[in-house]
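#onboarding

Welcome to the new folks! Below is a worked example of what a typical request in this channel looks like: someone posts a single protein sequence, and someone else replies with the predicted structure as tokens. Don't worry about understanding the tokens yet, we'll cover that in week two.

Example request:
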Amino acid sequence: MATFDNAEIEYLLAKGLIRPSTSPYGAPVLFTPKPDGSLRMCIDYRALNKQTIKNKYMIPRIDDLVDQLRGATVFSKLDLRSGYWQIRMAENSIHKTAFRTRYGSYEYLVMLFGLTNAPATFQVEMNHILRPVLDECVVVYLDDILIYSRDMKQHVEHLGRVLEILRRERFYVKLSKSEFALEKVQFLGHMVSAQKVHVDPKKIEAVRTWKIPENVKELQQFLGFANYYNRFVPQYAKLAAPLTNLLKKNTPYKWEPKHQEAMEQLKQALTSAPVLMLPEPERDYVIEADASDHAVGAVLMQDQGNGLQPIAYLSKKLHGAELNYPIHDKEALAIVIAFKAWRCYLEGRTTTVYTDHCSLKYLKAKPNLSRRQVRWIDFFKTHFHYDIVYKPGHKNKADALSRPAHVAAIQPLPVPEQPWQVVSLDFITGLPPTTSGHDAILVVIDKFSKMGHFIPTHTRARTEEIAQLFVRYIISQHGIPTTLISDRDPKFTSKFWKELMSLLGTKLAMSSANHPQTDGQTERLNQIVEQLLRAACKDEISKWDLHLPVLEFAYNNATHAATGQTPFFFCYGRHPLKPQKSTTSATA
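Example response:
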């Protein structure tokens, strides 16, 4: 490390980027590993940044920059060589950048990463020097410069103008990282081509291999990545809700099947994200908005000659008082949120709003508005031209952004013809650990007889362990089922589980953990088991697993409302032998 430290210092000195310092300032130096295993020198400027007056210059919104590329068919991307180092530090600020090493103190003569105002300063400089061509044929995000044109002839002219400006202002381009005359270009995590934008394929590959977050910080990193692309993901707020709930204050970080399900659904949504159209500002817009009990959703669209096509999706989880709004106010809130989010598109244009709540069609003319509705109407009238059109929910695209899908109606579950032909599996988790180490229950139910088995296990059980339990308690007693219904718990979607069921000849039918109505019998049985446990355990909470056999017997020998018989009788055609009271008296 000592050799590396000195080599880095010698390099910076030779390039004229630093000089020896006698400044009383002195930031500490840290080392972080590079991908190749070597070390990178980093300077901890947190103390300096805390005392620095922040530059409030607005960094451009990435969505705005991408939208600016509409109509372009040719692109070139320029990468500035060590861009920040091409900005000279103000002489009266140089001493503040001093840092300490074992070889002495040094200070920077150029701007560097890590200073709180560096991004804003660099953006100001780029916008200033490129102002003659900015938004005409160039968009800039820090040191990423993208030149766009309608055709090749125009592009040659645009490229020449930009390179001349950079030459005159003495900014240097790194040729090896620059790209020229492209039909489609990777820009800020997006792949942009003529009138279309979609997620960068490299980012898709990254999300496919994202590991399970082990703590809050890692979960925040995943959600930050996912949220960056939320405009591509219908139902984003609903999909991410179980994960965002883990970030709440005073919520213990405990990864459960529902969190894994949410992460897998988000990864699937990102890897199959739709291609979005770039907006054409001269055309009018269409918004479809909808609300459910817990979320609102909307989609922004345009007809660019090929029917209505999506430009962006939006969804938001409701919080606090919003959850108590009447349904017509939730529907109106969906429209308000959509107009605020897409205000940059909608101002000055006529917007048609499709909603599946009929009363909203008359919102503008309603005589008795609440204060909340008055604020909303005032917001609309002040900034927008719009019409509200009633469109039934089953025809409304945004309906899917806020409502759970009716999976059972689309993919009906199989109807069994005999006991233990169709079987359902689920877990009850969140239970206190027992002295035997169990903290979960594998609940198995026969769809024909309604008979159930309650098998103690633990949340850390591997797929192989669950398979062993299934063979021991189900297959050995009832044979191999033809269909197995479960949610998308990772144990049930693993390669091992799928291959095992394939070898057994058992078809897998997946319901969704976020939509329990698709497998209501199992959900109801879970509730019954939890109620029985609460009644049976009371003062023996650490031994709840010892009560499961008796509770299972009690459940299977109680009359089931769906069949009018006990599950045991419906399965075996007889009642079990039960303890008989003795009719003889003991004699001395």
